[in-house]
Amino acid sequence: MTAYVLSGVSLPDGATTDLHVADGHLVDEAPSGAERVDCSGLLALPGLVDVHTHLREPGREDAETVASGARAAARGGFTAVLAMANTQPVTDTAEKAEHIHDLGLAAGVVDVQVIGAITKGLRGEELAELGLMHRSRAGVTMFSDDGMCVQDASLMRKALEWVRPFDGVIAQHSQEATLAGPGACCHEGELSGRLGLGGWPPVAESVIIARDVMLAEATGSRLHVCHITTAEGVEVVRWAKARGINVTAEVTPHHLLLGTEELVDYDTVYKVNPPLRTSEHIEALRAALADGTIDAVATDHAPHAPQDKDHAFVDARPGMLGLEQALSVVIETMVKPGRLDWAGVADRMSHTPARIARLAGHGRPLAVGEPANLVLVDPERMGTVDRDASASLSRNNPYHGRLLPDPVVATYLRGRETYRRA
Ligand SMILES: NC(=O)N[C@@H](CC(=O)O)C(=O)O
Ligand SMILES: [Zn+2]
Ligand SMILES: [Zn+2]
Known about the structure:
The chain is of the alpha/beta class and 422 residues long. It has a single domain, classed as TIM Barrel (Alpha-Beta Barrel), CATH 3.20.20.140. Helix content is 29%, strand content 21%. It has twelve helices and 20 strands. It has helices spanning 66-75, 94-107, 130-135, 153-163, 190-195, 203-219, 231-242, 253-257, 279-291, 306-309, 326-335, 342-356, and strands at 3-10, 16-22, 25-27, 35-38, 43-46, 48-53, 78-83, 111-114, 142-144, 169-172, 184-187, 198-200, 222-225, 247-251, 296-297, 374-377, 382-384, 403-405, 408-413, 416-420. The strands form six sheets. A five-stranded parallel β-sheet has the order 9-10-13-14-15. The protein has a four-stranded mixed β-sheet with strand order 3-2-1-4, with no helix packed on it. It has a four-stranded antiparallel β-sheet with strand order 5-16-19-20, covered by helices on one side. Helix 1 (66-75) crosses helix 2 and helix 4 packs across helix 6 (203-219). The chain is globular, with a radius of gyration of 20 Å. The two termini are 18 Å apart. The protein binds N-carbamoyl-L-aspartate and zinc ion (ZN) (2 copies). N-carbamoyl-L-aspartate is lined by residues 54, 86, 146-147, 173, 272-273, 300, 302, 318-319.
């Protein structure tokens, strides 16, 4: 189907219209005879963009491949994802970045933009090939050692300096290792004491954010804060923005919805880094996403095979799935309580993440002349999440069995349907 009309669809600004699509773009008027698709009652959002996805290829294709992760993304309404560098081997050279870029092209259902490592092997010792990865076919613009925090301040400063000439961005997993006790695997607080688990105090996050925003100011470079989870971290970002520092921050769906109380049964599906926090932090995150202090929602989709999760809580791998329920959770936590309208959702899940990653052709308004990257949404539909009804190869879905919005009807990448609900 090269030309069609999505008729009677609502737009994020509340208007109702017909969207004409031809040759992958939104056009004034589709050719006569183009199919009309009745979209009354549905809302069109610009295709969602995730700046933080873990695809596990190469290295752990049993947990996720680029192709399976891309299908999960399309089911979640995404048209572009950024693939984190903590694969095996780590994505720290131009050649490795191009390999993943090519796997993304072959998968074809979302645009896969590669994130390069900041340091070789994520070891935090010497810089990876930042410039070469940028100039490669993969055109890397974002760099991250995610999973590991770049602890060395001088290396962090060098990385920020390196990417400034080409307007790159350094995305930090903000966690000061020396502030967490041995075996830290959850939020430090009353519950961690009761459960006998080692905790990460919130200040372990905020001190790194504070250090890094000062380095971003000193270098004039762009810093992105991955998966922010604390009220203190939010305050530092708010202060830095007011000062004119070039910093952006993301929050994950799970940190918007789930709290420390999930841990009472030691279910390792809820083990994640940074850890689930208490309600005061969750409230601070929701408020900051609403007022724009937090710029974007990013999934931190982290598939893990059963043999990496079926362990005592302290030994299990951290991370949970996120792509397929990201919009569901944002509707539940932000739209339903009236904290974000649909234009706000389009901003935090499409326009702004595309801008952070400097992704051309994504995060664009639904306007004539733009690529037809969009997701059709049923704003009212609810459903019980079933971890087995997933395109991901992994089953570590923290929403399994919960009744949540189930909005995604169809996703289009440059006019081509990449997902439609059966
Ligand atoms: N979030 C996680 O708990 N795990 C991520 C790494 C990361 O995002 O830090 C993973 O790669 O599994
Ligand atoms: Zn991380
Ligand atoms: Zn991550």
